[in-house]
């Protein structure tokens, strides 16, 4: 039965999203090759690293079916573990995984269960092309990325992991953000820093950046204050936030974008509009997103 389930899993899309909540020592000895290890006791502080809640995934746990703490916790918080493997309680699980070629040992290269913001995922090629042209040999040829309101640092981690020479800075004022950021950015920890700063109209930083992200974070005094000066000539700004259309509760109306607000901001501060789109979030709230280039 275990071999049949593993074979079915290998042939399904669920093999690409696989969460292993066993202790790291057990994971290093035996794991499924596509799995990501987040031990069960880490889940409450590493929720930002989990898949989207509407996305089914595979769960590997040492829980007995009669005491299913990991699955119950995940389901209770809105996630969808569709397939559950329990190696301790399934006969010859790891030998069968080895025979099917899906067994691994040791640490894996960085792999993520989460997705970056759709704007980054859909337009990565555009960002790469534009930033390649904006590189400055006098700055070591590195690309420097600033993420305003970075939260756990998912977007920054995803970008830096894909580009080994890029450097990143995340800024957030929320309590607990630094710990979440430290966990999420572990794969790129040598190229990233976190600053816990409350952002207002003025933000003094030691450099100008090739790429500035401001995703689902709206600080109007900063938009018209320091932000334009933090972007290098030829650099990019990626902005995305909820727009005041339709009926929803959060964020409150005064914290939402107005229609055409970002286009007018770009015009006022000398940015070219490269991408301009509206989307809806998983729960149906409208967003407005742009990618802008500094002239």
Description:
The structure is a single chain. Strands 9-8-7-10-11-13-12 form a seven-stranded mixed β-sheet, sandwiched between helices. A four-stranded parallel β-sheet has the order 3-1-4-5, with helices on one face. A two-stranded antiparallel ribbon has the order 2-6. It has helices at residues 2-10, 24-29, 69-76, 93-99, 118-122, 124-134, 154-162, 177-184, 220-224, 261-268, and strands at 18-20, 31-32, 35-37, 57-60, 81-85, 103-104, 144-148, 167-171, 192-195, 209-215, 231-242, 271-280, 286-294. With 295 residues, the protein is α/β, with parallel strands linked by helices.
Q: What tags apply to this protein structure?
A:
alpha/beta; 2 domains; single chain; 24% strand; Rhodanese-like_dom; transferase; four-stranded parallel β-sheet; seven-stranded mixed β-sheet; methyltransferase; Oxidized Rhodanese, domain 1; Rossmann fold; Rhodanese-like_dom_sf; 13 strands; 295 residues
